[in-house]
Write a structure and sequence with these properties.
Distance between the termini: 45 Å
Number of helices: 3
Mean pLDDT: 86
Largest sheet: 6 strands, mixed
Helix content: 25-40%
Low-confidence stretches: none
Shape: globular
Structural class: alpha+beta
Length: about 150
């Protein structure tokens, strides 16, 4: 307690009731992508600073109603790199909407790197049990990944 913790989770882990309970009891907040089949009703709109460069690409910031009585926040933005529209849900109500989108985008980039390690580099388990060997393996994987990116 006393410190905010923000988890960026996969959309398979959306549970508004547990999000609300963790927010009120432990100060744990969540960000996730909205599922395509969710039926959320807009309950109100949030005001954000459109002049702030951090909020570039934000289309909407609103409170939405879930069937269990919890009011999560929905942030809709357009990705600057692809133009794709992304919709995020969060239990955090005070951060700028652009920061919500940015934090989830950073999480997604980490997931893409881990996917590259598993599928392209065929690295699915550690070479050793010692922490030093695991750290060395992680450094080798990062070097290999970065070299592959440079060659692309």
């Amino acid at each position: 307690m006393g410190r905010k913790v923000l988890y960026a989770r996969d959309k398979a882990a959306i549970d508004f009731r547990s999000w609300h309970n963790l927010k009120t009891t432990a100060g744990i907040y969540f960000i996730s992508l909205e599922k395509e089949n969710m039926d959320l009703k807009t309950m109100g709109r949030q005001v954000w600073d459109k002049a702030d460069p951090l909020n570039h690409g934000i289309l909407q910031d609103e409170l939405v109603g879930a069937s269990n009585g919890v009011l999560p926040r929905r942030v809709t933005c357009q990705a600057p790199d692809t133009g794709e529209i992304r919709v995020f849900l969060t239990s955090e109500m005070t951060l700028p909407p652009g920061l919500i989108a940015h934090l989830y985008h950073r999480r997604w980039r980490i997931e893409k790197v881990l996917d590259c390690f598993k599928n392209k580099l065929k690295e699915k388990k550690s070479w050793s049990a010692s922490p030093i060997a695991k750290a060395a393996q992680a450094e080798f994987l990062c070097l290999t990944h970065n070299l592959l990116r440079r060659l692309e």
